[in-house]
Amino acid sequence: MNKQLVAVSFFLLSAIGLKCTLGQEKKVNHNIVKAKNARTKYKDDTKYIQNLINKAQPGDTVKVPEGIYNVSSVRLKNGVSLYSTGLFKQLPPDTTENFSFSKQYSESPMFYGEKVNNLSLTFNAGVNREAIYLNNCKKVTVRDVKLKGDSTKLLSFAGIYLYACDDVNIVNAEVSYFGKERNDPVYYQRGTGIRAQTTHNLRIVNSNIHHNGENGLFFHGCTDIAIKDNYIHHNGMSGVQVAFGSMGIERNYVITGNTLEANAADAIDINNPDEKRKVDLQAIIQGNLSKNNGWVKGQKTRDGSGIATLVGLRNVTVKNNRSQESNRPAVYVRECDAIDVLSNNADNVAEIVGNLGHIRLYKNTFPEVRLLASVKAKKLTLDSNYIRHLSFPNGISVDSLVLFANDLKGNINVNMDGRLILKDNKISSSSPKGAVTLWKVNEAVLSGNQIQTSHQDALALYVDNKANNVLIKENKIAASLTCIKDSGSQNLQIIGNTLASDLDSVYASTVISVNPKDLHLNNNIYYLGKEKTDHGIGLEGEGKVFMDGESLNLLSPNRDN
């Protein structure tokens, strides 16, 4: 049975101060020296706490009772746990220390552990450097802690800093006010709630990470990370940021059930800067609620994705998340492969950028899915989504673009190299551009769709002469004027469709073809007004048409169609 070393009284043995001098991250020089002068402003309890830990044996728990304890820096001991119901207040350092990229830890954290294993920490603290710094430690649990930093400091260290650790659990922790509040939409201050580098098997659960100057949680070169059921809010950059080392070893991230609110940048930012090397992250982002990210005092920042920013990654699933009132795309995907975006609900767009492998969107609700002009992808699949607007700019290149069983609003503009499959969708548009416009495509299959335009002068479906090998089969297409206009598409096939025009006139046509190039018309059903008609086809110019069971209505060459 573990012993418990209990501090039942509290006094200073002498006016001796403890100073921890931390060198490089893997080498620590630890010395106890006499203070040149006894402290007069602060009572220094450092030696008292350190003596309790030093006297304990592996397996012991040092219990510190109620009270306020002023400490500078205490070194942890292998196998010795700390449990305190009191409050630790960190004494100010002898010299000013600031966070920088070349020095990401202070010389005097409140509790420092190097190569210590099998211990737990429970305490409350107000600190001006790190509350906890663990260096090459294993099997450590940080539970039921409340850590408050210095909210006036511009270049603050992290609340908890982990370097090269393994099997660390942070449970029911509150980490806040490490760094000054961000007040500018462009500039931000340093100070992260929990910062981990080269760390493995880290779990952060049921914690409240808030009002830190920079990120709530930051990971660099880490693997096997679980972030579950936390409230991460009001931080000066992203709620969760994952950064990458030079080796691309990052794996197995599980980010589930968190609320990410009012962070000044992205809710979750996973950004591999070496975009040519797609990191096989094997991550799941699921069941998170994101609200009001990407703002500073009502002003937009340049970041602020509602659900996640994903750059340079493979094998990520984004599932069952909700996003509200964030200033940037809910989901932003760039230079990625094997990304599944499933059953998310957002009030902002999904944006897809760059050179991509296979990206799949399934059963999501987005106001818009936007592809930028630089997109070159092997396969993009949109399946069973509710999307108010699809933006496909000119010049994209997609080997296979698949739109299946979606509810789509507005005009769908296709001008790309590659193959298009448009199947079983419901497409409605009030745009003067119509419902579907095919300007350029190498091959296309449109089947089983309901396509409707309500604009009085718009075509439901336009097929340009640069759109080749297009099959339009068994769709229901309705328009105020003309359902389909063909401008000389090579080998266009219109087979088994129901085509209905609201215009009830002898001069009206549901299908118009100008200079047809091997146009095939087979077994379509035509309506003008509410009546079925046998003269729903209009041809202009010269060309070749193959018809089976169709009637022909030649149009006057001066007609404006």
From TrEMBL:
Domain Right handed beta helix: residue ranges: 117-272
Listed InterPro entries: Beta_helix, PbH1, Pectin_lyas_fold, Pectin_lyase_fold/virulence
Gene3D superfamilies: Single-stranded right-handed beta-helix, Pectin lyase-like
Domain of life: Bacteria
Xref: Pfam families: Beta_helix
The protein's name: Right handed beta helix region
Organism: Olivibacter domesticus (Pseudosphingobacterium domesticum)
